Structures are given as C-alpha cells and as structure tokens.
Automatic annotation (TrEMBL):
Name of this chain's protein: ENTH domain-containing protein
GO molecular-function term, one example from the UniProt record: 1-phosphatidylinositol binding
SUPFAM superfamilies: ENTH/VHS domain
GO cellular component terms listed in the entry, alphabetical order: clathrin-coated pit; clathrin-coated vesicle; extrinsic component of presynaptic endocytic zone membrane; synaptic vesicle
GO BP: any one term: clathrin coat assembly
Lineage, uppermost ranks: Eukaryota, Metazoa, Chordata, Craniata, Vertebrata
Domain ENTH: 14-118
Cross-referenced InterPro entries: ANTH_dom (IPR011417), AP180-like (IPR045192), ENTH (IPR013809), ENTH_VHS (IPR008942)
Length: 118
C-alpha cells in the first residue's frame, strides 16, 4: 500500500466493512497518491458496470463524494475514473450520469492541501 495515506486506508476499510466492494474500488482508484488510478481498480469498476446487480447510482455517488474532496489529487483522479467509466463502461453508467445535471459542479473547489501539481 505504498503511497496511500492513512485516510485512504481508513476509507477503503470502511467500505469493506459495509460490504461495498464497488465503493472500495472507487476509493482505491482515487487515493491521495500522485499517480494515475491503478489499472486493476479501473478494470474492476468497468466490469462492475456490466453486472446487472451492481448499484450504478451508488457507484456514481461514491465518485461524486470523491469529487467533493479537498485534495486536487483525489478530485482529479475521480474525474479521470469517471471519464474512463463513461468511455469504457456500460451504457447504464453513462445514462445515469446524463440523468443528473448537478454532479460536476466544481465552482467552489479550493484545494486545501497546499500541494500543487508539477
């Protein structure tokens, strides 16, 4: 788990305890680590969009929670993950996002971490 913050590990553990593997994968794809989302997490999420028993609204809501994070790294990775799922995931995911017009309002975003991209 190199590079993951304690906050990332706790969030992933909380989702594991609640039984939401999809939310856990979203959390692991959108860590504070300044690297791209891991391919294995993106592939898991893509596959999850194909499953009929997966709660797509919950997946989207978890991504939107991550977009609301104070860290620019987490927000950026959440947007990358969302884009990846829009392009490669099931049409259900894209249709759900299209049905909600307030998901990506970043007008009040302010990075409070103090770290800047290179």
């Amino acid at each position: 788990m190199s590079g993951q913050t304690l906050t990332d590990r706790i969030a992933a553990a909380q989702y594991s305890l609640t039984g939401s593997e999809v939310s856990r994968a979203v959390c692991k794809a959108t860590t504070h680590e300044q690297t791209a989302p891991k391919k294995k997490h993106l592939e898991y999420l893509i596959q999850a969009t194909q499953e009929t028993n997966v709660n797509v609204p919950q997946m989207a809501d978890t991504l939107m929670e991550r977009v609301g994070n104070a860290s620019w790294v987490v927000v950026f990775k959440a947007l990358i993950t969302t884009h990846h799922l829009m392009v490669h995931g099931n049409e259900r995911f894209l249709q759900f996002l299209a049905s909600r017009n307030t998901l990506f309002n970043l007008s009040n975003f302010l990075d409070k971490t103090g770290s800047h991209g290179a």
